[in-house]
Specification:
The chain is an alpha/beta fold. The protein contains eleven helices and eleven strands. α2 packs parallel to α3 and α7 crosses α11. The mean pLDDT is 95.
């Protein structure tokens, strides 16, 4: 039985990667912080490994303890990272510096796996094709306009610059599904009879269901892919109202007030929300980074390399994914 370590295993995407690994009969190690919730890591076959990415000496001790008993991991999926924070410097500290430190410790301990899989983001590119409306492609020159996107890009550049390092990088577009909380807020708003769109110009959106992201990772493992980067979506393009329309269908088509917020007003609200987050010391969903993401009009991306090289075929389109997601929200009484 091959072993796999999944960092950030307690999070939204990480917990689904853990489940997919269990389904494929891997020996699964869930890398978590001491303070991490274990809510989605209850299966008896999951081995919990506490990892402190903030302190290299402690991290070295923790990984050495594993190596002393089990040798090294066959595969590592590095999913741990920040998607929101109060101090923007933390994006660089966690998403880049801690990723670099983690790899350095693995190299020092001779624990480099067959594949080191890094979960990045389509956000590393920024709004590069807003005028031409062309799909974003793997070889396009990234120009991130968010602190989050820059931190992920810096981690990619470091990983790709390691000679012979067996990486595979995945750059998913907007990931949604059960357990996710940002899209959930949109669903909750619709249930409360409000649907908000941003900007008056058409927005081409792409999505990928969380289970399809997990499946793509294991297709890459099966193919023994090495030193490659893939963009992930469900292969379709949607307008800004499609997601909310499917949510409405699953909620029984409640009466909804549909509002369109001008971009300048959204920017003001985002700045105020960011200011409030600093005062309360609680990171919010809306901030200046999020404003730039919502402002971007073109999120089309080319997933043909994943299709041809990995045999990736998305199992969920947006309608099917929303249906399953809303059913889960209802079952767990989130909605």
């Amino acid at each position: 039985m091959e072993s796999i370590l999944i960092t950030g295993a307690s999070g939204f995407i990480g917990s689904f990667i853990v489940e997919e690994a269990l389904n494929r009969r891997f020996s699964v190690w869930a890398g978590v912080r001491t303070s991490s919730s274990r809510e989605y890591l209850q299966h008896r076959k999951i081995h919990i490994l506490e990892l402190d990415m903030t302190r290299p000496d402690v991290l070295r001790t923790q990984l050495s303890g594993y190596k002393g008993t089990h040798a090294k991991f066959d595969y590592i999926v590095h999913c741990a990272g920040l998607t929101k924070c109060i101090d923007k410097d933390n994006f660089d500290r966690v998403n880049y510096a801690q990723t670099r430190r983690f790899i350095e410790v693995l190299r020092d301990l001779n624990m480099i796996p067959k594949q080191f899989i890094y979960i990045s983001s389509l956000s590393i590119f920024g709004p590069i094709h807003e005028k031409t409306n062309d799909p974003i492609r793997e070889k396009d020159l990234p120009k991130p306009n968010t602190v989050y996107g820059m931190s992920k890009l810096k981690a990619e550049i470091y990983i790709e610059g390691l000679p012979g390092f067996p990486y595979v990088i995945y750059r998913p577009t907007g990931v949604y599904g059960p357990r996710e909380r940002d899209y959930f807020l949109m669903c909750k708003s619709i249930k409360q009879h409000f649907d908000v769109a941003v900007g008056f110009r058409r927005q081409n959106l792409t999505f990928v269901y969380v289970k399809d992201v997990a499946r793509a990772i294991f297709l890459g493992i099966e193919k023994q892919t090495c030193r490659r980067t893939f963009l992930l979506s469900d292969g379709q393009v949607y307008n800004s109202r499609t997601f909310s329309r499917y949510v409405c269908n699953e909620l029984g088509n409640p009466f909804v007030f549909r509002l369109t917020i001008p971009l300048f007003l959204l920017k003001v609200v985002s700045l105020l929300a960011e200011f409030w987050a600093r005062i309360t010391r609680k990171p919010g969903t809306l901030n200046l980074d999020k404003y730039k993401i919502m402002k971007q009009r073109n999120w089309q991306c080319d997933i043909s390399p994943a299709i041809t090289e990995l045999g990736y075929t998305p199992e969920y389109n947006l309608e099917e994914g929303v249906k399953e997601t809303i059913a889960w929200y209802k079952e767990k009484e989130w909605l």
